[in-house]
Design brief:
With about 325 residues, this protein is of the alpha/beta class. The chain has helices at about 20-25, 40-45, 60-65, 85-90, 100-120, 120-130, 160-170, 195-200, 220-225, 245-250, 290-310; strands spanning about 5-10, 30, 50-55, 70-75, 95, 150-155, 175-180, 205, 230-235, 255-260, 280.
């Protein structure tokens, strides 16, 4: 019996060698490419009906030029790399992975916040450089250190990751407030207006999806409404922040510190204004990437495809 052709266009990020593709291999003949350039997409899809992508774009033009496609599986929660409307017109099912990295991203949010609060790496480096051994005192620090208890964390986007972040914040003794355009009655006590959140928060953490209404939600005007010295953390999507505005606020001291795991263009471009801003941590989009999360993602992706092949598609984003 002829087996279904499955093409993975950019598998390296999910599986740089510490996982396997056995789940997909049980469902068809799998060809995995580590990376695919725009010029290679159509040739590599060929006559495969099943296309798996992470960040390789599948535009309307590509979809129309690849008539064999019946299913597109996105190896991520965000699916803006696929023209879902064009896929729907062709009857192509598009699925995503909605809930694989909740705890990993919440944990990473606090890894960033704790580094900003204590400057752990900086002080460790100072010890290794001999500065402690030369100190006249039994301890030294040359950055302000901050305790989180009784600080207010404002969470923009109170879905699964926002709620997981809130649980950690409360464990540190922080007050939690949240803004979300969709408000779950089960959490009504935590919701405030965006203006209230901006004005009351000591730490603002972004966990909302990227929509037109959230694009640039952190900008010159919203920053002006924040407390002086506020900390901003973004582990969601880069374009939620107007990066030039944040850089200027960091350099002026209006924003005390920031940490971002995502930027507007990835990999980061050499002229990104955040690279030369004061008091910022920038990490290369790794909040989602612990092995445990990637195993979970792989398993869900396989289940998505198995459900589709079985006639009952799940996690469809273009119905």
């Amino acid at each position: 019996m002829k087996r279904t052709k499955i093409v993975v266009l950019d598998g390296y990020t999910l599986n740089p060698g510490d996982l396997d593709w056995k789940g997909f291999e049980a469902l068809g003949d799998v060809t995995v490419y580590d990376r695919t350039s725009d010029e290679q997409i159509l040739q590599r899809i060929g006559d495969a009906p099943i296309v798996i992508t992470n960040k390789t774009p599948l535009t309307k033009e590509t979809i129309e030029a690849a008539p064999a496609i019946t299913y597109i599986g996105v190896l991520a929660t965000g699916y803006n790399v696929v023209d879902t409307a064009a896929a729907a017109e062709r009857g192509i099912v598009v699925t995503n992975i909605p809930t694989y990295g909740t705890d990993a991203v919440a944990q990473f949010t606090f890894a960033l916040l704790l580094e900003l609060a204590h400057h752990v790496q900086h002080h460790s480096d100072a010890v290794m450089e001999g500065r402690w051994s030369k100190s006249p005192d039994f301890c030294f620090w040359d950055y302000p250190l901050m305790e989180l208890r009784d600080k207010t964390m404002g969470i923009i986007g109170y879905g699964r990751i926002g709620q997981a972040t809130a649980r950690i914040a409360r464990a540190f003794g922080m007050r939690v407030i949240a803004f979300d355009s969709y408000q779950d009655e089960a959490h009504r006590e935590v919701y405030v207006s965006l203006d209230e959140l901006l004005g009351e928060s000591d730490v603002i953490s972004l966990h909302c999806p990227l929509f037109e209404k959230t694009r640039g939600i952190i900008n010159k005007q919203s920053i002006a409404a924040m407390k002086d010295g506020v900390i901003i953390i973004n582990t969601s999507r880069g374009p939620l922040i107007v990066e030039q505005d944040l850089a200027e606020a960091l350099n002026s001291g209006k924003v005390g510190a920031a940490a971002v795991d995502v930027v507007s263009t990835e990999p980061i471009e050499a002229d990104n204004p955040l690279l030369s801003a004061k008091n910022i941590l920038i990490t290369p989009h790794i909040a989602w990437a612990p092995k445990e999360s990637r195993i979970r993602l792989m398993n869900i992706a396989v289940d998505n495809l198995a459900s589709f092949l079985g006639g009952k598609a799940v996690h469809v984003v273009n119905e």
